[in-house]
Amino acid sequence: MATMESLIGLVNRIQRACTVLGDYGGDSALPTLWEALPSVVVVGGQSSGKSSVLESIVGRDFLPRGSGIVTRRPLVLQLQKTEQGLQEYAEFLHMPKKRVTDFFVNLTLIDLPGLTKVAIEGQPESIVQDIENMVRSYVEKPNCIILAITPANQDIATSDAIKIAREVDPKGERTFGVLTKLDLMDKGTNALEVLEGRSYRLQHPWVGIVNRSQADINKNVDMIAARQREREFFATSPDYGHLSSKMGSEYLAKLLSKHLESVIKARIPGIASLINRSIDELEAELDHLGRPVAIDAGAQLYTILELCRAFDQIFKEHLDGGRPGGDRIYGVFDYQLPAALKKLPLDRYLSLQNVRKVISEADGYQPHLIAPEQGYRRLIDGALNYFRGPADASVDAVHFILKELVRRSIAETQELKRFPTLQAEIAAAASEALERFREDSKKTTIRLVEMESSYLTVDFFRRLPQEVEKGGNPVASSADRYTEGHIRRIGSNIFSYIGMVSETLKNSIPKAVAHCQVREAKRSLLDHFYTQVGKKEAKQLAELLDEDPALMNRRQQCAKRLELYKSARDEIESVSWSR
Q1: Which of 163, 318, 427, 475 could form a cystine bridge with 325, CB 3.0-4.6 A?
Q2: Distance (Å, rounded) from C-alpha 530 to C-alpha 520?
Q3: Which of 259, 27, 45, 287 is nearest to 159 (CA)?
Q4: CA-based torsion, 27, 29, 35, 38: positive or negative
């Protein structure tokens, strides 16, 4: 059966885990989990006795005292029962692992500031609204249990605590009314109308409290003595004697414990669900981030090769169509190269004037007899030189696409994100390999252009006279070898031949580029790198696997979260709930 101590302790540990995890950041479940946990918040006007009530419940002196606004920022207090015989201590999240054992120490973080009516000298005009907004941010949470603190010597109708509690909890389901300073009421007056629920009824009973006075605190009257005096006050009071069993800070603590028990029992299933979901998310993230690297050289080499293979697989997927990017290479072959070939200035090169000039220079001092063969060859060689540019441009375009795909593939290889040094080495090795492939591709494509110049397709020219005669035009004679018509026919013939060659190169250049660059990139992009890695010593391998500090920190954070969540889950599962 679950005990109150196990229930409260469980919630405190989960709340502490939430607070610690919040410092690590990045966990979307934390706000939801924190809000699902019940908490007790004291709210009231300035100097209404909120801090004294907290100390009475805790049974320890740990909050500051004084006039005016002493409580200046919220304090989230989490109490855990220590093992028998161990010294009590306090620990603050801004000072981890530093234990405070002197409970008379001045603290910088304290409970909710008191609600005020007006700003006094030295305070900003917005302080009234600022404090109210701060208080609301706590009490508006549906799992917040509100301790509405009101001094007994104040009219309940003007109570700041009751006003704000009624606004955020109109049904009073989570509001506990607490009357303080009963011992300071004028003689002849009492607070029975409030305590018995006739003045303002709440779902939970009102509880009267008698706190230590400032004089008691100055005299170091401890909490044990203060509680004894409180019990005597109610037991001997003619006004409150019949209510003495339901008055005092000890009864308030029991009342809150009983209520907390029921709330916690109702919330635990939802909390467990949130924790299990968070555990699944954190384990998935740790798998994504990868486990710590082994220190053995063999294991490190295996890790490096596996990471390279993961990158290589993604790179191939880009080329083969499993991922976007490879289609841009086809765009070079299908659009860029044909467009470049069409834009070659062959019309200008084969103009009447240039053809005449080249033919004349080729003939020299002795004009050609039948056909200006040397002129033909010079004109064809000159025209084919224009094809070098598109061939080079195709090689370069594919090279830059491959480089971009390497960069993208490295970025998409999640396992590599842990190792910036290895990323850089792979990028450098891939870039070096692509440069070699580019140089080989350029040599091959230029060789294709040169091959067209080295040996002309003779059958094309042998068919020309017959084709002309069939068209009704006589073959040019030696008499009209330099006439405009003859020169124009030569230019036309060469233009037709270059057109045929252009179609051939439009098909052969992509084949050469794909073979020399794309195919080799798929087959042997990191072959040289593999050879070099295999020769490295253990220290050099470790340097390649030097992780990004941010990712190492992230993994540690996730591991810490996971440990805390699993601990909370185990505690929930270990509790046998009473029926």
Answers
A1: 318
A2: 15
A3: 45
A4: negative
The CB density around residue 23, as the number of other CB atoms within 10 Å, is 11
Q: Any idea what DSSP says for residue 269?
A: H
Q: What's the token pair of residue 74?
A: 């919220």
Separation of alpha carbons 262 and 272, rounded Å: 16
Residue 54 CA to residue 59 CA, distance in Å, equals: 8
Other C-beta atoms within 10 Å of 296: how many?
Answer: 12
Number of H helices, E strands in the chain: 23, 6
Q: Do 379 and 461 touch, CB atoms closer than 8 A?
A: no
Instruction: Give 55's contacts (C-beta < 8 A, 6+ positions apart).
Output: 61, 62, 63, 223
Sequence-separated (6 or more) residues with CB below 8 Å from residue 157: none
Q: How far apart, in whole angstroms, are the C-alpha atoms of residue 451 and residue 457? A: 11
Instruction: Say how far apart CA 251 and CA 301 lie, in whole Å.
Output: 67
Q: What pLDDT shows up at residue 443? A: 96
pTM of the model: 0.52
Contact 110, 72 (CB under 8 A): yes
DSSP 467-524: HHHHTTPPPPPGGGTTSHHHHHHHHHHHHHHHHHHHHHHHHHHHHHHIIIIIIHHHHH
Residue in this structure with the two tokens 């467990």, named with its chain if needed: 272
Quote the CA–CA distance of 549 and 539 in Å, as a whole number: 19
Instruction: Identify which of 253, 195, 224 has the alpha carbon closest to the alpha carbon of residue 54.
Output: 253
- What's residue 295's pLDDT? 77
Q: List the beta strands (DSSP E) in 136-260.
A: 144-151, 175-180, 207-208
* Mean pLDDT to the nearest integer, 470-479: 48
